[in-house]
Amino acid sequence: xxxxxxxxxxxxxxxxxxxxxxxxxxxxxxxxxxxxxxxxxxxxxxxxxxxxxxxxxxxxxxxxxxxxxxxxxxxxxxxxxxxxxxxxxxxxxxxxxxxxxxxxxxxxxxxxxxxxxxxxxxxxxxxxxxxxxxxxxxxxxxxxxxxxxxxxxxxxxxxxxxxxxxxxxxxxxxxxxxxxxxxxxxxxxxxxxxxxxxxxxxxxxxxxxxxxxxxxxxxxxxxxxxxxxxxxxxxxxxxxxxxxxxxxxxxxxxxxxxxxxxxxxxxxxxxxxxxxxxxxxxxxxxxxxxxxxxxxxxxxxxxxxxxxxxxxxxxxxxxxxxxxxxxxxxxxxxxxxxxxxxxxxxxxxxxxxxxxxxxxxxxxxxxxxxxxxxxxxxxxxxxxxxxxxxxxxxxxxxxxxxxxxxxxxxxxxxxxxxxxxxxxxxxxxxxxxxxxxxxxxxxxxxxxxxxxxxxxxxxxxxxxxxxxxxxxxxxxxxxxxxxxxxxxxxxxxxxxxxxxxxxxxxxxxxxxxxxxxxxxxxxxxxxxxxxxxxxxxxxxxxxxxxxxxxxxxxxxxxxxxxxxxxxxxxxxxxxxxxxxxxxxxxxxxxxxxxxxxxxxxxxxxxxxxxxxxxxxxxxxxxxxxxxxxxxxxxxxxxxxxxxxxxxxxxxxxxxxxxxxxxxxxxxxxxxxxxxxxxxxxxxxxxxxxxxxxxxxxxxxxxxxxxxxxxxxxxxxxxxxxxxxxxxxxxxxxxxxxxxxxxxxxxxxxxxxxxxxxxxxxxxxxxxxxxxxxxxxxxxxxxxxxxxxxxx
Length: 791
Ligand code: SF4
Hints:
This protein is α/β, with parallel strands linked by helices. The protein contains 26 helices and 33 strands. The chain is globular. Iron/sulfur cluster (SF4) binds at residues 63, 65-66, 68-70, 94, 98-99, 101-102, 247, 249.
């Protein structure tokens, strides 16, 4: 166990407005100041003056209008929100600003289309005929029907789709406790391929440029600094339009600042002249769906022209390869294509000429991109949801994009790329109820009783499509129409219908796949006249198209009326509280209340029907008296990141141990250290703590987090934040190995593999074609004329 020591001082960084506090001991006061010092004092004074004049209550929460979930300051007067600003105290994400969309969020809260009270369908599905009912009636009828479905088909016949990932935990918990592992979120063709490479290689998700500033960084002298320097020298956005598409405000601000302050070049590779392209240094208009071809050519160029002895060609950072598992194997497989001739264009694979013929970019431009990316450090190659997502070989593009960043030394490097999943704060913990899925359940399959974990009943894990690993919901209509037959795992052969669907804050009908298929599935009837999908519950704040097909519509409190935590995109360990700043409007209810009401009624009906219930009172209404109780449980795992990097974020605490607790308690060593579990636990972060700190908490970090320092050998070793099997960056795909094992055991090859001629997934570099590029696939030429805007 490391000896605990106190920090000497904190230096507050380079912003003109920052005050330097030298010689101070660390404590809450310091962190308090660190929140405040990021905006000039006079600005803060002006804000306070305005507030005083208006006689308003000031509350802090987090935006939910896009994935950035910036901290907000909200003014409330007489129970009504009158202003929305950026939170001036927590400039971490947005530098205290709020974008236009955040302010427009009030149009959602006070929308005339809000669902005001529970509704019950009286016409046919899709006709839009509903009558007002009470909450009591709605909950009673839904719970009764759910128990009836459970009795007929088993609890797995319920699928809960929480649409967006935010504030979903209560619904997942209820679904898992009910006995179904089928709780999913949105996903069709956008984000899944983008995150495929990171998932395979580092067990992560989304790669973003390291431009989120300012961030608290431990400096080599032990001081803690609000680091506000932009180190990136080159950012290449491929099919990613952060200035408009997802409004990740820190990415917009960071890109502009990196350009202005650090002379960072910004290239945009995109078929369209996007907003980001219009502000970039160079725009590379590529043919849609060919970014994988571009990446392959860039990689070949870098490998062929790398020369460590020539500073103008020193592309590869060999020191990184020590932390890469399977590099030689990957290289061999990649190179095995180099002499093959592409039958479509007659060029050898991955050459500049080959890529020119496919991408439409002149080969000089491709060479330039490869060279400039290889030689400029730090640099970030970023591919968006819309690049690998929208073509057939998107997974290959995503893997190649990762490899390019890794071998050039830009992964987890200051100013390079950061995997958001493996650095952001943990939250949720036991509140999400995932542990219910580990309960053992029994099913009779072909007359034989089988017992295994509830999780193994999942409708699509390792299902017909590899994307089912990510709970893609595009194939739901087929599941509703045909039912589910488990093809893998212990419950192989188990059949069940998808009979109940709870859709919460999503518009599956429009966003998840072909609309007509969803309509067909929602309205399909059995011979006895009953809908195949026997129960469809729609829960949301406003009524969207998907709601028109529901049997029941329940009004959920808007994001300013309920409590939760920020979730998705930060590249550093931070948490913002999404606080309820006003009371729920009309008859809308908070997720915690909806969960408890349904749980209680299901419990009553199950006790009546089965004499026992899967719902435990002590896990619902007895435990969570308020939504704050629920959120406090979600916070019990925060920040949950290992103490890694050099200097260590917390040099006073053992390296590699998972950190749990408030920033101050960790800083001051008010912790319990568990050497067996390798955890350090300080004082838990709570709603109260977050409120006291303007709605946020943040923890310091370092770069190069996939390495740990070996004290004995005085050298770096693989490990750190990477949670892969080998603790290295894996270019041998162990995840695929696991899936292959499952498929081999079952003897059923997924249809999507068969299409590619595969019996197994390849465990190292693989390539398959971009099917819908008509330059490489003559079959698609006809679509060029029918859908010219897409191709
Ligand atoms: S960038 Fe997104 S999260 Fe931030 S204020 Fe704008 S809409 Fe809200």
